[in-house]
């Protein structure tokens, strides 16, 4: 192109910038509101803030209008104990790695390992916490309430 008429060579940088700006203008807040991963992220952020007594930032809270059942369904996976694969009744959280388990199951697992002079590893797949202790466990009241609340709603819907 340059050999023929250098003055007719298009400004590629300008063309790319124009195209980029046009695409950028198409993006909207609605795209975020409909994105499943973003909704999940906002819900987890809100739950963490609530758990640590922090105020939720309402001005950026686009998830308010989103169907609650959808969010509940996404968080239900957190209700299942990685050891028993059953819904937890008395969830306890590991202070070190943040994973949650059914209290009886994790206590039995830790005691069993320690009796045999072995270290207890977090049973959550992919977790690198290899020396769990009873003192690492704290009751997860927020999760217990969420499970109870979910079960009450489920019960009401089935009646």
UniProtKB/TrEMBL annotation:
Any Pfam family matching the protein: zf-Nse
Top-rank taxon, per record: Eukaryota
GO BP terms in the entry: cell division; double-strand break repair via homologous recombination; protein sumoylation; protein ubiquitination
Pathway(s): Protein modification; protein sumoylation
CDD domains per the UniProt record, alphabetical: SPL-RING_NSE2
Molecular functions (GO terms): SUMO ligase activity; ubiquitin-protein transferase activity; zinc ion binding
InterPro entries for the chain: Nse2(Mms21), Ubox_domain, Znf_MIZ, Znf_RING/FYVE/PHD
Record key words, sorted: Acetylation, Cell cycle, Cell division, Chromosome, DNA damage, DNA recombination, DNA repair, Isopeptide bond, Metal-binding, Mitosis, Nucleus, Phosphoprotein, Telomere, Transferase, Ubl conjugation, Ubl conjugation pathway, Zinc, Zinc-finger
Residue intervals of the SP-RING-type domain: 66-152
Cellular-component GO terms for this entry: chromosome, telomeric region; PML body; Smc5-Smc6 complex
Cell compartment(s), UniProt: Chromosome, Telomere; Nucleus, PML body
Main location: nucleus
Function, as annotated: E3 SUMO-protein ligase component of the SMC5-SMC6 complex, a complex involved in DNA double-strand break repair by homologous recombination. Is not be required for the stability of the complex. The complex may promote sister chromatid homologous recombination by recruiting the SMC1-SMC3 cohesin complex to double-strand breaks. Acts as an E3 ligase mediating SUMO attachment to various proteins such as SMC6L1 and TSNAX, the shelterin complex subunits TERF1, TERF2, TINF2 and TERF2IP, RAD51AP1, and maybe the cohesin components RAD21 and STAG2.
Family statement: Belongs to the NSE2 family.
Binding partners and assembly: Component of the SMC5-SMC6 complex which consists at least of SMC5, SMC6, NSMCE2, NSMCE1, NSMCE4A or EID3 and NSMCE3.
Record protein name field: E3 SUMO-protein ligase NSE2
Species whose genome carries this gene: Cricetulus griseus (Chinese hamster)
High-level lineage: Eukaryota, Metazoa, Chordata, Craniata, Vertebrata
């Amino acid at each position: 192109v340059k050999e023929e008429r250098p003055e007719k060579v298009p400004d590629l940088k300008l063309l790319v910038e124009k195209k980029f700006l046009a695409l950028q203008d198409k993006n909207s807040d609605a795209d975020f509101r409909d994105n499943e991963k973003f909704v999940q992220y906002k819900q987890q952020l809100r739950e963490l803030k609530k758990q640590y007594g922090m105020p939720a930032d309402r001005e950026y809270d686009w998830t308010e209008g989103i169907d609650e059942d959808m969010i509940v369904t996404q968080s239900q996976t957190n209700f299942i104990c990685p050891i028993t694969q059953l819904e937890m009744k008395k969830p306890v959280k590991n202070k070190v790695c943040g994973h949650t388990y059914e209290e009886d199951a994790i206590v039995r697992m830790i005691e069993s390992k320690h009796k045999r002079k072995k270290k207890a590893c977090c049973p959550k797949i992919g977790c690198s916490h290899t020396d769990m202790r009873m003192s690492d466990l704290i009751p997860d009241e927020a999760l217990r309430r969420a499970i109870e609340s979910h079960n009450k709603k489920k019960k009401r819907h089935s009646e």
